Amino acid sequence: MTDGLTRNTEKLFDEKGHIFLLALDHAQSGVMQGLEDTPALMNTLAEAPLDGFILNIGLAAHLARPPFLRKKLLLRSSFGGSSLADAYAPAHLNHVSPETALAAGADAVLMMAVIGGEDYRSLQALAADIDAFHQYSIPVVVEILAADFSKTASFDVQHHGARIAAELGADAVKAFYVDNFEKVIDCCPVPVILAGGPKDRDINTVARHAIECGARGFAFGRNIFQASAPSAVIRSLRAILG
Questions:
Q1: Band (118; pLDDT cuts 50, 70, 90)
Q2: 156: which residues sit within 8 A by CB, 6+ positions away?
Q3: What domains lie within the chain, and their CATH numbers?
Q4: Best label site of 15, 44, 124, 160, fewest CB within 10 Å?
Q5: Cα–Cα distances in angstroms (integers) from residue 47 to residues 14, 71, 134, 184, 234, in the given order
Q6: What share of the chain is helix, strand, coil (3-state, %, to 5)?
Q7: How many CB atoms lie within 10 A of CB 163?
Q8: What average pLDDT does the segment 164-169 reach?
């Protein structure tokens, strides 16, 4: 890791080593409940205790204005296709260049690792893209998905996927909560950020346990923007994170 990449990766996290991001990168769903007007939602949460946002390139410019100028931009650089497609994409390929990420002021980029099936298509492309962004000292966060998306929140996918992503060069991993989550973190040599959260469990309980296991932060989407009181959920999670 170069000195620049080391510095940029460390700057993603606060003085306690934590990060709290709101994930708004759900383009695959088209218009999702809660994201009918993403800029308006962001405006309502401008003063919420968030460290930053996960956005696709088409919305990234909304952070280039007050009061968001000091918020971190984790730029989603890959896309797998829409939820209206006949089949789930076996690879989420990158469509954003390092130069575009720099021009957008991104603090890091987010890519997907699709695990299972013919995952060489996903993982070989992922490894090459991590290397390309590292040439510019841009940190790369890798999210772990399953080729059979219904198996994404399974122990094997998250446990092995997190380690694979780290060994391919990821600077941090965005992993979904599973039973024995501590084993996912213990076997991953880079920081783990908790993704989303199961819909059938209390999000605060899950978040607290993830931090106890060693997670370095949260990157939550629907559990926040589809909540009846998003600001209250954010404050509660921030208190857990510290």
A1: very high
A2: none
A3: 3-9+21-241 (3.20.20.70)
A4: 15
A5: 17, 11, 32, 33, 11
A6: 40, 20, 40
A7: 17
A8: 98
